[in-house]
Amino acid sequence: MPNDLTPWIDLSWNERQILSLVRRRGPLPRAALAQTTGLSPQAITNLTRNLIRNGFLDAGAVVRGKVGQPSTPLSLAPDGAQFLGLKIGRRLVELALVDFVGRVKIHRQEIYGHPTPDRVLTFARNGIATILGSLPPDARIAGLGVATPFRLWDWGSEMAGWHGFDLAGRLAEDLPFPVFLENDASTACAAELIFGRSALPRDFVHLYVAHFAGGGVVLDGRLRVGPRRNAGALGSMPIPGGRQLLDCASVSTLEARLGRSLPPDDSGWQVPPDTEGRWIAEAGDALAFVALSAVALLDIPVVVIDGAIPRPTRAALVEATRAAMARLPAAGIDRPEIIEGSLARSARILGAAALPLAHFFEPGGALT
Amino acid sequence: MPNDLTPWIDLSWNERQILSLVRRRGPLPRAALAQTTGLSPQAITNLTRNLIRNGFLDAGAVVRGKVGQPSTPLSLAPDGAQFLGLKIGRRLVELALVDFVGRVKIHRQEIYGHPTPDRVLTFARNGIATILGSLPPDARIAGLGVATPFRLWDWGSEMAGWHGFDLAGRLAEDLPFPVFLENDASTACAAELIFGRSALPRDFVHLYVAHFAGGGVVLDGRLRVGPRRNAGALGSMPIPGGRQLLDCASVSTLEARLGRSLPPDDSGWQVPPDTEGRWIAEAGDALAFVALSAVALLDIPVVVIDGAIPRPTRAALVEATRAAMARLPAAGIDRPEIIEGSLARSARILGAAALPLAHFFEPGGALT
DNA sequence: CATTAATCAACAGGATTGATTTATTGACAA
DNA sequence: TTGTCAATAAATCAATCCTGTTGATTAATG
To answer: How confident is the model at residue B265, as a pLDDT?
Structure first.
């Protein structure tokens, strides 16, 4: 448990549950918290008193107009804690400071031909030092989360330096807070879970289409990482034709057909409609297949599709997936609702920052 | 919570954890329990004192021969609780009384052409009445579990009576203990989890090949049922060729090719080797495909294959699945270990009985 | 006599219960 | 219209309970 570094955060399970509820449902009065948690009003009084005293909750203006004593909704204190997120991409490395309610306060990025350990480490260290220097000394930084594709060395010989390189360990060396590292597609899922706009159920599968396709699985409101931290490897799911999801539903596939790279932001996304259309159709088939597999396996009611792609492209992809889903045999199961994610390109970096948040503030993050 | 009926069982989370550990690892001394649960020795003393007083644990003979005070291993009390299991099959309905350590104490069965609600209800009610009558009045029956295929009405017009029929509710009407109902393939998985011989990890997928193929998913040591109780619907998983797993890996498929039904026990299983061989090859392909899907989605290290089939057939099926697994693309994931189940035909009825057991005695079964 | 198992006695933390305080709406009488 | 009061709901206070921990103690063995 990397908690010696952050003695100011040591929340009990019930305190985490309260914060999690307020994060998901918005400002809530104490009575509502008692109702939904099943705890006694007195317990809620005690717990929220601590959370307010420690700066994690704010009491809002009293709400009048109903019978009985007016209620005082409690909301998350935006400065209750802050989180650093580092995202390593194929063309772009990003660093962000995110506050307790999910707003990006500082953002820096750097473009490269391909990422190397040295380059990333230097960018991150310099960036973090600069950010920390610009912050008041009492800024409460809970940790750093890193979102990175796994097996970077598989991308080509120029990436061999990543083999055996312990990025999280190296970053943690000189930082006064813990470092967490997760697959970038999983962090995109975590971001939707923690910061997402959509009202999502407690169980969903998240598909993220970026340079490669990946995903995440949320069960009972918690991101599943698996015993070998490799759950949600949706890109590796087998699909018909002896292929895997990432062979179809990846931007890299589109780039290969295009014969050129697409830029790391939406502005320069110029793809001939027929090329894009064919890619979307095939990707939709593959996405529907893995989505339905997940439903059969886990009884998932909702599948979220997001990606580092323009919104119209994403919308078309969702439409294509819905259509393909309707064509697949589904005897014995209910086809899931397929919805668009709410975070698009920012999902991975937000999710990186969500890693320390989940660790310290979500029920079951760790510790008690 | 159907617990008003069984006031004599009201175990705390830690008490359940102790029983669960002893069930899985065999007789354990208190010191080992303290070690593995993380609780203090004193807490273990208090908890086990209660469990022994209430008849759930037995103190064994002290173990000498090591340095220090000899230890007294604690084991499950066989009569700590008993469970009824009802299994509805295509040709056979079974009823069993299972004790706290998983031994079948009483077993009755009835063969029919096809199951109807009336027939099953009558068999179950008569059987339960007889069993209860034969038992001393202080036999501690915790509940009845029912293992049944879902969507029985899809099997043909003669099964229409099952549509909308609330079997669990009807059975519960005149029983002094709660009734639990689950998909039969899921109960087979539950049986392997609770009563299985094999040392299984905390996460595994269970594939059960019976009249139809089905399965179950165990995550963090708990059977996943899903928000609509339809998790582990592995038979409905899509496989290449626009089909579902149950189209290939079901005994019904073999029967269709054979042109006749196979008997509900291993003794009359006579299938020409080449017919069986072809079926096994195709089923192995399909099983490997869904197994690998599960691994990619959930990071599962072990896949268990079992079924209501003779052991040599099961062994060949596992071998075929291993071979097919090796042929599938697995970039980015680790192929799982594929092992045989330990319960074969008895898995479903044992799993039915395991439902009330899990509810009352496993951590997280329900309640506190 | 070091070592390990198990228990005793005192205590601590986090919850519950039941009584109490506070602030409001809505009904009704003046 | 306005003043009064019952009903309602939010929140807290005070006492208690339950379940665990800690630290000292006893027991049995190589």
So the answer is: 84
